[in-house]
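Notes taken during the Thursday session

The instructor put the following on the board and asked us to keep it in front of us for the whole hour. The protein is Formate dehydrogenase subunit gamma. We were told not to look anything up and to reason only from what is written here. First, the residues (355 in total):
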Amino acid sequence: MSISTMRAGPSRLLLMLMLVVLLASLVLAQTALAQQADPGREAAFAVPAVDADLWRQVKSGETGPNYRDSRTDSTYNLINESGETWRQIRDRWVSPFGLIAVLGMIAVIALFYLVVGSKKLDEPRTGRKLLRWSLVIRSLHWTVATLFILLALTGLNLSYGKSVFRPLFGDGAWAAMMSGTKLIHNYLGPLFGVLLVILLLRLLGQNLPKAHDLQWFAKGGGLVGKGHPDAGFANGGEKVWYWLLATAGLAVIVSGFVLDFPNYGQARDTMQWANIIHAVGALGLTAVALGHIYIGTIGTEGSLEGMTTGYVDESWAKEHHNLWYEEVKDQAIPEEQLAAGQQASRGDEPAPRSS
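Then, after some discussion, the predicted structure tokens were revealed:
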């Protein structure tokens, strides 16, 4: 089996996942608009027995057990001011702008692909391979990536699914869908957090900033000017993605643990701020992850095979990571020798030669 054949399956799978995200995002775009068009709908549904006179009393600022309470730890008043502040931040800012970020990234990727297209190698492949990713790193990467996609899709459903699926399928189906979504999100979240921290620690040494990273950014990763900028094992863009995961990603993990385990005495305002931090970080990372997925799959020839087989062609290494290539070029292995070694390790019989 050739290297190109081995990477065809995962490439199609990731392309299909991107299309699913695109279609889901287009549908979910109606959610933010619906929420903004009728901001009182959620409150009216939550307290349907409240009439106009009672709302006037609430609006006047009257406090008491039945009206308004300014305490953040209140759990039994009609309106809690900190809760209303959280709802306003969520509905007016986080939800609509998060969706704009995700849809905007999809639009930018689609436009870039239509105008520029996939980045092909400047030089023909040499057929000599360099080991880039070990089996342990690849296993960690694909596990974390799978969990990230599942958490992103379930998180989008938790944030926007109410206005989309409830009218389509009715209360019963919607309730079952949201129950399953919540279970998946809550139970896979901690596992994702633990594995992401392990992956970040394994890759820390390869993602420390270097002086040549500034040149990489100045040339737009090779889009500006002639020639490709210098890059070590990780280029400037990959390091930015790493440090986003190491900062915003950890904020999402910590806030997610606060939300996932409310039985450790968190105050109401702590849970509210954890929810805002979690949503902002998760939506931002989802938007950037779409760019990472595009560049690592159909956007750049030869990138995906590194994470599927562990090996990259010499031409790819020299073009995209020239400083790393100079360090390891003596370790290049002919593709035929690599394939024979993999076949021997599996104990396969050699394929018969055609006459």
